[in-house]
Amino acid sequence: METDLPLSDPLITSRDIEDFIAHWRAIPKEGLIPGLRAFLDFPPFKLQSEVVIYDVVSLSDIRIRLFGTGLSMVVGRELTGTDMFQQFRPEARAEAGRIVWAAVHKPCGYIRRLEMSRGAVKTSALSVGLPLRHELSGRMAVAAFLSRMDRTVVYTTALESSFLTGVKLMQWVDIGAGAPEA
C-alpha cells in the first residue's frame, strides 16, 4: 500500500528537503520502509553528496555508514565508519540519539535543525531523516539529508571547533505509522 507522505510546513523547510522526501517515497518498499540496498541502488538523490546513512544498532550505538563528500567538506574530515555520538557535543548527544532512535522504532521521519561550528564559523542547517531496513539482517538505518538551501553562516571569534553543537527536533514526518509523542 503506497502511503503519501505529507509535505512538511514550507515555513520551516526548504524545497530540497521536500525533494528528498519525494525521492525517498519513490524508492520501492516492502511495507512502509525501503531496504538499504533499494536506497543505494535507486538513482541517487540530486544532492547525494549531502546525504548521510546511520546504522542504528541500539539507542547508544549509532554508526555512520556513509558520509557524503559535500558534508565532509563542510566538516573538514571524512566521518564514514565513525560513531554518530562522537560528532555531537556531550550536551546534544542524548537528543540526537533520541530523534534517530524514534525514527526507526515508530517508524517515521524527522526534520531537525543542527547547530554546527568549525573554527570561527558557526552554521545552522535543516536535516531530514527517513528510515531504511537492512534487507538481510532486518536491522534499521536512517538516510538523512542536510539541506544546502537552509544554511546560515555566522562568523565568531570563538576558538571552539566542535562539529555538531546542538540539535532541535522541528517536526516528525509521518510515513504511515504515525508520529512519536513529543
How does this model look, in words?
The protein is an alpha+beta fold. The protein contains four helices and seven strands. It has helices at residues 15-26, 36-41, 69-75, 90-105; strands at 51-58, 61-67, 109-118, 121-133, 140-146, 152-155, 164-173. Strands 1, 2, 3, 4, 5, 6 and 7 form a seven-stranded antiparallel sheet that branches. The chain is globular, with a radius of gyration of 15 Å. The protein starts with 14 loop residues before the first helix and ends in a 9-residue tail after the last strand.
Any chance you could write out the topology, listing elements then pairs?
Elements: H1 15-26, H2 36-41, E1 51-58, E2 61-67, H3 69-75, H4 90-105, E3 109-118, E4 121-133, E5 140-146, E6 152-155, E7 164-173
Antiparallel strand pairs: 1-2, 1-5, 3-4, 3-7, 4-5, 4-6
Give the C-alpha Rg.
Answer: 15 Å
Low-confidence stretches: 1-11
Major beta-sheet overview: 7 strands, antiparallel
Global geometry: globular
The overall pLDDT average reads 86
Q: Structural class of the secondary elements?
A: alpha+beta
Q: Could you give the order of the helices and strands?
A: HHEEHHEEEEE
How many strand elements?
7
Helical segment count: 4
Strand fraction: 25-35%
Distance between the termini: 27 Å
Helical content band: 10-25%
Short description:
This protein is of the alpha+beta class and 182 residues long.
List key phrases describing it.
single chain; 182 residues; alpha+beta
